[in-house]
């Protein structure tokens, strides 16, 4: 377009020059005619240059936008790739943890099975236990406090069982026949509990102990004396052991 307009402008100038040389127009007349044409040509050239510059600027902006979008897309693709790698790593770790948990669960199941078997066998063998010793711990009237003599006897029980691997302790609490039956039952239970707690404090395992309060001693004679009633206010501690350990335990 720019070349076409320029050609037209020069063609017009050539015609006017030809007229001036032929005597059909004066020099002033030629200038008057050519100046407007020259100005239009220059104006057209200016507009064309501005249009080309504007187009070039727009193309550059479009190219910049495309490049920016491409860079953004590439960055997002890299982020997605890193996220995928992290997810894969976590999945692998989770798989290893699950396998470890499965192995641990299998091991625990085996241990539980062994423990169950051992407990079952222990209960099945309870009837085969032999009485190794029986110790009476006395209490003062209406009291659940262990005397020094009672503690000394319980210390002997602790020493006796410390070397045993298979034993059971039976703790039976009693009162004399003084007072109401309900009160005596609760008092006998508290006395048995005091003995059990002393043994627990001296490292006797709770699983080895069977405890009960029986209230007033029903085997005691009806005609009780102060001395006999003193013997009734007691807790009996029985040590039961495996047959092969009975002789050794009794000798302690």
Main structural class: alpha+beta
Reading the helices and strands in chain order gives HHEHEHEHEH
Q: How large is the count of helical segments? A: 6
- Number of structural units classed as domains: 2
Poorly predicted parts: 6-10
- Strand residue percentage: 5-15%
Oligomer: single chain
Radius of gyration: 57 Å
Largest pleated sheet: 4 strands, mixed
Shape: rod-shaped
Distance between the termini: 127 Å
Mean pLDDT equals 76
Strand order of the largest sheet: 1-4-2-3
DSSP strand count: 4
Helix content: 55-70%
Summarize the structure.
With 252 residues, the chain is of the alpha+beta class. It has six helices and four strands; from the N terminus they run H-H-E-H-E-H-E-H-E-H. The protein starts with a helix and ends with a helix.
Helix-strand layout with pairing:
Blueprint: H1 2-22, H2 27-124, E1 130-138, H3 148-161, E2 167-175, H4 181-201, E3 209-216, H5 226-232, E4 234-241, H6 243-251
Parallel strand pairs: 2-3
Antiparallel strand pairs: 1-4, 2-4
Descriptive report:
The protein is built from 6 helices and 4 strands; from the N terminus they run ααβαβαβαβα. It has 252 residues and is of the alpha+beta class. Strands 1-4-2-3 form a 4-stranded mixed sheet. It is rod-shaped and about 170 Å long. It starts with a helix and ends with a helix.
Give the key terms.
252 residues; alpha+beta; 60s Ribosomal Protein L30, Chain: A; 2 domains
């Amino acid at each position: 377009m720019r070349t076409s307009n320029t050609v037209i402008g020069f063609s017009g100038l050539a015609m006017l020059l030809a007229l001036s040389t032929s005597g059909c127009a004066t020099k002033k007349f030629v200038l008057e005619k050519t100046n407007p044409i020259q100005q239009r040509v220059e104006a057209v050239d200016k507009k064309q240059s501005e249009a080309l510059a504007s187009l070039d600027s727009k193309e550059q902006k479009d190219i910049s936008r495309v490049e920016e979008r491409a860079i953004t897309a590439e960055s997002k693709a890299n982020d997605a790739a890193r996220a995928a790698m992290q997810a894969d790593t976590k999945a692998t770790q989770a798989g290893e943890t699950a396998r470890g948990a499965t192995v641990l669960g299998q091991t625990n199941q085996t241990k539980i099975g062994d423990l169950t078997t051992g407990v079952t066998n222990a209960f099945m063998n309870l009837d085969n236990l032999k009485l190794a010793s029986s110790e009476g711990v006395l209490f003062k009237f209406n009291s659940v406090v262990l005397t020094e003599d009672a503690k000394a006897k319980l210390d002997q029980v602790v020493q006796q069982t410390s070397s045993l691997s298979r034993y059971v302790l039976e703790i039976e609490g009693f009162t004399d026949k003084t007072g109401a039956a309900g009160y005596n039952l609760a008092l006998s239970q508290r006395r048995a509990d005091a003995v059990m707690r002393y043994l627990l404090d001296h490292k006797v395992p709770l699983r080895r102990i069977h405890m009960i309060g029986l209230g007033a001693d029903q085997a005691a004679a009806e005609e009780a004396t102060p001395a006999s009633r003193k013997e009734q206010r007691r807790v009996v501690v029985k040590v039961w052991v495996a047959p092969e350990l009975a002789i050794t335990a009794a000798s302690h």
